[in-house]
From TrEMBL:
Domain of life where this protein originates: Bacteria
GO cellular component: membrane
InterPro entries (UniProt xref): ECF_substrate-spec-like
Keyword terms of this UniProt record: Membrane, Transmembrane, Transmembrane helix
Organism of derivation: Streptococcus acidominimus
Transmembrane region(s): 40-65, 71-93, 105-128, 148-169
Keyword Membrane: yes
Matches recorded under Pfam families: ECF-ribofla_trS
Signal peptide bounds: none
Name used for this protein in its record: Membrane protein
């Protein structure tokens, strides 16, 4: 593993704090969920730091939010979802697109991150509804679609915010 300098560790810590604080204070309640910019910041973290460090700041930022806001019991699921998003972005951006940071590819990263967020929440709530609720798969999927209204909003925010935030944060990190 590559050793990080103190400056890099502080920068990663501040980015994790940015994720946590943005979800804490910049969220809009939608049913049982809320729309937030956290997923977009996770995608930008992969663009800025790569998938390994991106998943680290995502897990810390989103995990801390869950722990500090009464979602400690499901923090592990949030961290697992972050891992899945970063893994897929690793495969798409770093492998398929060869980490080429053209604006077209940045937009693709935002769209992929949004789709993975929707799919992972749909799968999560379908499993919960079918196993815990004891309903059929069809009913579990229907209930999951109804429950993830906030996820659709977060996905839309991700698609819009990633191409906007990446150039701004890239300049800040480059200093």
């Amino acid at each position: 593993m590559v050793r990080q300098t103190t400056r890099q560790l502080v920068e990663l810590s501040l980015y994790a704090a940015l994720i946590m604080i943005s979800v804490q204070f910049l969220r809009i309640p939608v049913g049982a969920q809320f729309v937030h910019i956290g997923n977009a910041l996770v995608a930008v973290a992969v663009l800025l730091y790569g998938s390994k460090l991106g998943v680290l700041v995502a897990a810390i930022g989103l995990g801390l939010f869950d722990i500090l806001n009464g979602y400690a019991a499901v923090a592990w699921i949030t961290i697992l979802e972050s891992l899945i998003v970063c893994l897929v972005l690793h495969l798409v951006f770093e492998k398929l697109l060869r980490a080429d940071k053209q604006m077209r590819n940045v937009v693709i990263v935002g769209v992929v991150a949004a789709l993975i967020k929707i799919i992972s929440n749909l799968v999560k709530y379908t499993i919960i509804n079918s196993l815990v609720g004891g309903v059929s798969i069809e009913a579990a999927v229907a209930a999951a679609v109804v429950k993830i209204g906030g996820t659709f909003g977060t996905a839309l925010v991700t698609i819009i915010a990633v191409p906007i935030l990446y150039p701004i944060l890239k300049r800040i990190v480059a200093r």
